[in-house]
Write a structure and sequence with these properties.
The chain is an alpha+beta fold. It is built from three helices and nine strands; from the N terminus they run ββαββαβββαββ. Helices cover 15% and strands 40% of the residues. A nine-stranded antiparallel sheet has the order 5-3-4-9-8-1-2-7-6. The longest helix is centred in the last third of the chain and has 11 residues, at 83-93.
Length: 125
């Protein structure tokens, strides 16, 4: 009997972009529960990509420390805070960010690449 185990990582999550931070809802946060730091980048489709990194990987010293961000976990969401990061994302994606009203996008975990993809073209209400 072949069984396909269902995972919370397979669900669609939501990322909320603010002027100072990115908030990930609980579904989008699942892969980051044990992350020490994260890297944030932009792919060829202008999607935001977040990669979790374990402490051992970060401490090897071969990753540029300026590409590492702290992710804070709460019961119902996680947060990456950086004004500079959000300015870069805003400029690259051409979106206007606010301190109080977020711009929300759908997310999906890419198991093969071990990254969370925030889809620029899939804005939520």
């Amino acid at each position: 009997m072949e069984i396909k185990w269902l995972s919370a990582k397979e669900k669609e999550g939501v990322a909320s972009f603010y002027l100072t931070n990115i908030d990930l809802n609980m579904v989008a946060s699942v892969p980051f529960q044990y992350a020490y730091r994260v890297q944030v980048g932009i792919d060829e489709n202008n999607n935001v990509v977040i990669k979790p990194l374990q402490k051992e990987r970060v401490l090897t010293g071969d990753i540029d420390e300026y590409t590492l961000y702290k992710i804070c976990m709460n019961k119902s969401y996680s947060r990456i805070s950086s004004v500079d990061l959000m300015k870069n994302i805003s400029n690259i994606l051409g979106i206007k960010l606010d301190k109080k009203v977020p711009v929300k996008f759908k997310t999906r975990w890419d198991e093969s690449e071990n990254v969370l993809i925030i889809y620029k073209d899939k804005e939520c209400d």
